[in-house]
Amino acid sequence: MLPFFFGSKQRRLFGAYEPAVRSAGAGAVLLCGSWGMEYTNAHRAMRILSRRLCAAGFDTLRFDYFGTGDSGGETVDAELGGWKDDILTALRELKELSGRARIVIVGMRLGATLAVELAPRLAADVESMVLWEPIISGSQYVKELRDWRSGHHMRAFDLAMSGASDTAASELSGLLVSSSFVQGLTSIDLRSQEITPAPRVLTIFSETQNPDFKIRSMSNDSETVTLKASSPWKDSAEQEEGLPVEIFERITEWLR
Asked: Taking the CB of residue 179, how many other CB atoms lie within 10 A of it?
C-alpha cells in the first residue's frame, strides 16, 4: 500500500493506493467512503474490500475528503460541492497511477450519493459504479445522525465557547460543521429520479427497501439487490454480525 498526499497546496488530500496483486489488471477502483462516525466505523471494512479487489486484479485508491481524516482542512471546511471536486481529483490521480483504461467507482453511504450526484461531470471512462446503501433522503439522514447523538447521550457543542463563526454554527454527529454543510446534506433527494450515473450500475441495500430509488444504467445494465448483511458504518456495539463478506463477494464477482 502506498500512502501519499495529492491535490493542490490549498486542498491537500490524503490517499492510500494499492496496486493489483496479480499483473493481469482488471481495472482500477476508486473507493468513496462515508463521513463522520460512519467513516470511522466502516474504515476496516473499506480497507478489506480494497484488498479483496486488489486480489481480484484491480488497483484501488481510498482517500479522505477535504476536512476529514488525514486530509487538509478542518471539519468546518467541509462542503458537499468541494467533496465532489475531491472525487474528480482522486479519479484523475487513480488514472495516472494505475494507467488502467477501465475505471470503477465504489461508493458507500454518502460516498455513493456524491458519486450519483456527480454523474453528469464524470468522464466517459467511468465504466461501472457500485452504490452501497446510498443515502436517498438527506433530511432523513440528518435526523438519524441527530438521533444517534441523542442515543449516545453526547453533550451538544457549546458553539459560543467553540469560537465558531455564525457560518460554522452547526454541530452534527459530534463534529463542528458549517450550517451550509448541514443544508447540503438536508437537500439530498434521490427519490423518484431517473438516474443514469454510469454504463453499468450495481446498487446494494442491506437495511431497507427503497422502491422510490430508480437507478438505471446508460446501457440498461443495472442491478439492484438487497442482501442480508451487517452494516459496517454502524457502531461496532450495534453490529451483531462480522464483516459483510456477502457484499464483498457480490461486488468483486459483479466487477469481474
From this structure: 15
Please list, in sequence order, all residues whose beta carbon lies within 8 angstroms of the beta carbon of residue 105, skipping any fewer than 6 positions away: 29, 30, 32, 87, 91, 115, 122, 126, 128, 129, 130, 198
For 154-212, how does the pLDDT look when each residue is reduced to its tens digit (9 = 90+)? 555 555 555 555 555 588 878 899 999 999 999 999 886 677 788 899 999 986 666 66
C-alpha cell at 14: 490524503
138: its cell numbers: 438527506
Q: What is the pLDDT of residues 36-84, one digit of tens each?
A: 989 999 999 999 999 999 999 999 999 999 999 999 999 999 999 999 9
Which three three-digit cell numbers place residue 241? 454480525
Q: In this structure, how many other beta carbons lie within 10 angstroms of the beta carbon of residue 89?
A: 18
Q: Where are the alpha helices (DSSP H) in 64-203?
A: 80-98, 110-117, 138-151, 159-162, 179-186
Query: What's the Cα-to-Cα distance from 44 to each of 27, 59, 179, rounded to whole Å?
Result: 23, 18, 30
In the structure, how many helices (H) and strands (E) does the chain have?
A: 7, 12
Assign residue 90 a region (left: φ > 0; alpha: ψ between -120 and 50; beta: otherwise): alpha
